[in-house]
Amino acid sequence: MDRNTELMLNEQKTAFYVFDTAVLKSRIAYLRAHLPAKAELCYAVKANPFITGEIEKDVERFEICSPGEADICRDLDIESSKMVISGVYKTPEAIEMLAADRSFAGVFTAESLRQYQLLCSLSEKYSRRLRVLLRLTNDSQFGMDQEDIEAIVSKRNDFPGIEIIGVQFFSGTQKTSLKKYRRELEMLDSFLNRLKEEYSYEAAELEYGTGFPVSYFKGDTLDEEALLEGFSELINGLAFKGRIILEIGRSIAASCGKYYTHIVDIKTNKGIYYALIDGGMHHMVYFGQQMAMKQPSLHVVGKADAAPDKLWTVCGALCSMNDIVVKQLPLPEIETGDVICFENTGAYCMTEGISLLLSRDLPAVYIIKENGDLYRVRQSYETKGINSPKYERM
Ligand SMILES: Cc1ncc(COP(=O)(O)O)c(C=O)c1O
After folding, report:
1. Is-contact 50 365, C-beta < 8 A?
2. Greatest Cα-to-Cα distance within the chain, rounded to the nearest angstrom
3. Is the model's pTM score more than 0.85?
4. How far is CA 129 from the centre of its chain?
5. Residue 8: predicted pLDDT
């Protein structure tokens, strides 16, 4: 066992996460090497806020979707010119605070006519030029119809304080179909061209959320290099010649994360071998509820090379029959106290879980710096205070 793992396991008697900066940076380098040089990268902070500060110099932008994410980035001293303030609901007070702050040099997205009007009125109120990306809908509650964007663009001279720098588009995560990328990029290219032809509006940039996929499970057949090559050809073939900024969360963050959880009980019920862990589905969300059906990459610490003994069903610590982490998992001989390390847990796992069910603690979080130094960045965090009633007479 390496020294960092030993340090963490000595400190934590229950589940925890660790994010490895060297792995993270080499992942970004891999993406850059397989994408066109002109494609810039915007990290979607929601995928893993903890790694944001580690990659400030490695990406051109950060997509921030809530006041909480904005505060995290400010506390990390992320340059405001790198911030895109995004999100389907923008708290008016938080937007006003940023609009009033003359040192704030970031971009706002407008996801609705109402959000656009808010930005227009704030730019007038504070006599400030605000830079705005108009989000195009993917036929969901996000963004605006093409007609609404056209209406905004056609009247852009009425609001000289607003600089519409381009269009933002995101249609979903774990997208593996090159056909879908082609359809979307052709649609965006022709829309940007229409804005140019019909409204003499030339977008300076297209911010595109790629939703690049991550292979989580044994048997996944993703050919990532082929996908990125095909995607790059599509980007290079665009008639649009402005800046292209790719908003990416999962594909940047997943591989740098590991999640350690202890085996706390072992039993055989009706012939099935169960291993109970002190973590579970509230800490580990890969993508949807596919976990029990598929086998993620994992190993038992100190037993990675041992031959499998039998097939185990690994279950988490929630009082929910859904809290099955893996079924029919071949493991070497195990005992209580053994630790399972789940890989590829750097994206969304620590934020998408149902953390408040059962009032269990949130796991501690560690970061391994590029030089190998280990830092604890969050101590394990009690949630019982959040779930316990504090009566205040009204
Ligand atoms: C607008 C937007 N951009 C980017 C992302 C990141 O997506 P992914 O993690 O699939 O790269 C999301 C995820 O929800 C999003 O909503």
Report:
1. yes
2. 73
3. yes
4. 30
5. 98
Pull the structure tokens for residue 192.
């940007």
- Integer Cα distance of 172 and 197 in angstroms: 29
Q: What CA–CA distance (Å, rounded) separates 107 from 85?
A: 6
Give CA–CA dist 360/362, Å, rounded.
Answer: 7
Dump pLDDT digits (tens) for 272-327.
999 999 999 999 987 655 666 788 999 999 999 999 999 999 999 999 998 999 99
Tokens of residue 330, six digits: 């071949």
> Terminus-to-terminus CA distance in the chain, angstroms?
56
Q: What phi and psi values does residue 107 have, to the nearest 5 degrees?
A: -115, 145
The residues with which 207 forms a beta bridge, in sequence order, are: 168, 245
Instruction: Give residues (CB < 6 A) around ligand 1.
Output: 44, 47, 63, 86, 170, 173, 209, 211-212, 247-251
What radius of gyration do the chain's Cα atoms show?
23
In ligand 1, the atom with minimum distance to the C-alpha of 252 is 11
Report d(CA 45, CA 361) in Å as an integer: 23
Task: Report the C-alpha gap between 43 and 63 in whole angstroms.
Answer: 6
Q: In this predicted structure, what is the pLDDT of residue 107?
A: 98
Of 247, 250, 252, 351, the residue with max ligand 1 atoms within 8 A of its CB, to mutate for a pocket test, comes to 247
CA of 210 from ligand 1 middle (Å) equals 8
| DSSP reduced 3-state for 156 | helix
Please tell me the distance from the alpha carbon of residue 78 to that of residue 308, in angstroms, as a whole number.
46
CB 347 within 8 A of CB 362: no
Cα separation, 34 vs 17, whole angstroms: 28
Question: Residue 178 has which token pair?
Answer: 């090159």
Q: Which domains does the chain have, with CATH numbers?
A: 3-15+255-380 (2.40.37.10), 21-253 (3.20.20.10)
Note the pLDDT tens digit of each residue in 6-51. Answer: 999 999 999 999 999 999 999 999 999 999 999 999 999 999 999 9
